[in-house]
Amino acid sequence: MKFSLEWLKDYLDTDASVAEISAALNAIGIEVEGIEDPADKLAGFRVAEVLTAAPHPDADKLQVLTVSTGEGDPLTVVCGAPNARAGIKGVLGLPGAVVPANGMQLRKSAIRGVESNGMMCSVRELELGDAHEGIIELPADAPVGADFAAYNGASPVFDVAITPNRPDCMGVMGIARDLAAAGLGTFKPAEVPQIAGEEACAVEVRTDDAEGCPAFYARTVRGVSNGASPEWMQRRLLAAGQRPISALVDATNYLMLACGRPAHVYDMAKLTGPVVARRARDGEQVEALNEKTYTLDESMTVIADQAGVHDIGGIMGGEDSSVQPETTDVLLEIAYFNPESIGVTGRKLGLATDARTRFERGVDPAFLDDGLAILTGLILEACGGTPSEVMRAGQPPVEAKVIAFDPALTARLGGVEVAKAEQRRILESLDFKVDDDWQVTCPPRRHDIEGPADLVEEVVRIHGLDKVASVALPRAEGVAKPTATPAQKLERRLRRAAAARGLNEAITWSFISEREADLVGGGRWVLDNPISEDLKVMRPSLLPGLLSAARRNLDRGANSLQLFEIGRRYLEDGEHPSLAFVLVGAKGARDWRSGKPKPFDAFDAKAVVMDLLEAAGAPVANLMVMGEAGDVYHPGQSATLRLGPKNVIASFGAVHPSLLKAFDIDVPVVAGGIHLYAIPQRKSSGFARSAYAPPALQAVSRDFAFLVDAALPAGDLLRAVRGADKASIVDARIFDVFAGQGVPVGKKSVAVEVTLQPGEASFKDADLKAISDKVVAAAAKLGAELRG
Amino acid sequence: MSTQHEQQAEATLTRLETVQSATEVEAIRVEALGKAGWISALMKTLGGMSPDERQVQAPRIQALRARVADAIEAKKAALEAAELEARLASETLDLTLPAPTTPKGSVHPVSQVMDELAEIFADLGFAVATGPEIEDDWYNFTALNMPESHPARAMHDTFYFPDTAPKGGRMLLRTHTSPVQIRSMVEQGAPIRIIAPGRVYRSDSDATHTPMFHQIEGLVIDRDIHLGHLKWTLETFLKAFFETDDIVLRLRPSYFPFTEPSVEVDVGFRWDNGKRVLGGSGDAEGHGWMELLGSGMVNRRVIEYAGLDPDEWQGFAFGVGVDRLAMLKYGMDDLRAFFDGDGRWLAHYGFSGLDQPTLSAGIGAGA
């Protein structure tokens, strides 16, 4: 909301500077978003008198003026305005001044051979209005030579943000009241003229919707002439960013901005019969002032006559009965609308207006008569006319709230000691009534005050938040205790392990497009009101986000990329913390030793998954490598890792070529995912490790080469070998896999190195023979033959 | 032994000097000292001598044997040394060539900052709490004192789902981390000290707003907590986070439905080559104030909604943008880049996995 200093001074008697007022506004909770001084823009523009005007010798449409600025010799100025003539006073921009409308800096220059020492300005050039037909003509008594900004009453403009709890400050008067309480001056309430009704109100008003519109006050004014509003009012409205329209409309806008009180003016000629606040009928339509037609329903309160709806109550008036230049008789409406209904109606219609903003937050229910009187006074001043008596329908809810306040609460909650007398002064200056035993009566305009905590806020914000001293939080004795949960520690370990392993952590959108979601099996959670189609479905998998990021990187010329993300997947049964990664394109850059790098393959993905699971403390030795990794993967180059047949902990593999194609990716990508919640949390058993002493005797190793079915998973063979003699076999490693020459068709040769650890005594030949036999026998169960 | 033997020994030594290979040296060794070598044969003659003769001859023969044997060993060693030298000379590597590299991974700045905040607040006794992002209207709004008709709801630009929420209204994407306040109080009761970091969502997008961003919520509920504690906590945490005592806060009264009184917190900064650098009073020359976070004393109604007695328990809450903190501390200026996954950006602004924030080493990771 914007307002000028001169306007503020109507309600606040103060000598405070702009900077002091600005600081005070911030301090009491009215945030200053900007301060603009029009005088800055009008620097170098002076009141000047045209002494002579003669045609330009070389240009038909130009004149050569001599202009007095009250000092020195008159200046020669070339001017194209038809109304420039000797004897008028206007505004001269001197060389160096910058024209507000176009930012052009004026210079002394020759125009068609005649020297010009400045520019006589139009209203539009100075951004004072829309008129641009000719130069400004000032009254004859304008002091020649005066700084135009000062002469014109230019006043600094504050742009403030009013929090939604303070509709009473959505008018200059309310802001002045708060500033006065903070010691910035003396509050001067708006003067309320005594309007003597000269006739009965010719239009009957009533409210048939006591809930939506509990009070509807009105009066007619007949015989008005709706010309331009007074210059002083236009100036203030312009400063507030409100375009002047006509005297009647401007008067209502002025009342709203000055007192936070929306009102409406109807052209009586367009009304038939009683004017009634009632619920709209379903499907009823009204063309509003913004020239859009709205379809209403039964929940909405409207102001209507026999012919139809004239006003979406408290939100926007109707086009049909709006006042026009030729309007002569008007009906003034001051009503009280239920804030909640206004909000519901406004949201349903998607209609945001200044009136709605105020009614929705709650206007002063005790300001109907005064508001109407002030509005009438403004109209009578500008438009003349005969006012009627006030007709009042219904009652605004003015019951004052009384709060039992304990001034000690200020220190207890606000953390600052404020003397009782000062607390009382603050509350009273904000128009609260405080009786001897601290029963505080709230002004009805303060809808935001609900209880004692609100009064503490009033006291503290006016007293000064800067006076609240910092007080250390009580601290537990000793060193701070660890607070991270096992899940948090798991996530941190995984993140840092992945980063240490060469993967870059990305954060991608939680929402993806419907198409992307469908590519990975579809999303359960689809937004009703997405910001775009690309960000519509809560991701069921982190893969689409990473693949999209991969594509963007490839488009930028990357040829090798390792990305991971730790985040949630959004499924039917909740939000699942997950880790996913993609290894894209080549394993690295070309190297002088190894030449062109190979593309990442499924084993690279497996290595990442295994390393991360190990870092996470998962029992990697017990993991089973199984299939069914899902459609996103290459069916023959992917696997799941499980603890138990149904407990999938991770999956990995080459990304399915069709999925890559759908993401416009033409290099190989391998990927993996870990379900964080599926990793069993290790039971805490203190810090001591299990007992261990390195064996005294050296381990020995024996190699076995088996012929097995080509389809036999090597891992099965390895597990069988490992399990053949658990007492002695401490490790088994596959060191060769071979098929081809010398190996029968349909078979493969798998060579395993088995590490044997003797216990108390060294192995004798017979021991080794026995272990070997067990290994061969275990392998044989899987159809493996020992190669000769 | 005869002079002939002496001469033969001299000849052997001369030959040794001229030979160039280990094979030739070995041939000479066999010829002289091998089983059938002439010196071995000479040694054998000692057995047939009389003791007197042996007494004379033995030292001479052994001396001769030793001379030849030592010369052979010396020659062998010299040849081996020469061979090693020649081999090493042939093995020279150009070590200006690059060594194999391992790719450097990184931790995202948002994660890093969340870890930093967890570390700071752990020292102040705050645990880290979490809650769902797909939230019930009741937790996101109603329990935070924003009933259905509340105008402040409109300021939240909420994303909605078609699903009906268990506690009324519709399911939505949480617009702030504040619902975690409610959930934590309901689950844990009071006293409580938590921070709750996480993703939040608002339908807003421009250079400084993205529809998804990160917030961290702070909540302290106890018996005697007041605004002064809030002020101290914010000052203390910001000083620890930015690792400078030159942090000046400006508290402004504000409005949030879930706090009363409500306080907006600005932090002073100075302009440095077009960038904002925290420090100093915003009122000082060349300085300004920047909105940093919202906070306040938890509204009685919120405490009631969370199932606690507001006459017994009171406290404060605050919420601050994590992305914003990261940008201010580490100097990024485009929020959208946070969520793009550009490998170059991540490598530049990301953190080493080893940069685990600790109190002893400092919370922040140096540039």
Automatic annotation (TrEMBL), chain A:
It is an enzyme of class 6 (ligase). The keyword RNA-binding applies. Binds 2 magnesium ions per tetramer. GO terms for biological process: phenylalanyl-tRNA aminoacylation. It is found in: Cytoplasm. Its EC number is 6.1.1.20. One of its GO terms (cellular component) is phenylalanine-tRNA ligase complex. Residues 39-149 form the TRNA-binding domain. Its cofactor is Mg(2+). CDD domains: PheRS_beta_core, tRNA_bind_bactPheRS. InterPro entries: aa-tRNA-synth_II/BPL/LPL, B3/B4_tRNA-bd, DNA-bd_dom_put_sf, Fdx_antiC-bd, Fdx_antiC-bd_sf, NA-bd_OB-fold, Phe-tRNA-ligase_IIc_bsu, Phe-tRNA-ligase_IIc_bsu_bact. Its main location: cytoplasm. Tetramer of two alpha and two beta subunits. HAMAP family: Phe_tRNA_synth_beta1. This is Phenylalanine--tRNA ligase beta subunit. It comes from Aurantiacibacter luteus. The lineage of its organism: Bacteria, Pseudomonadati, Pseudomonadota, Alphaproteobacteria, Sphingomonadales.
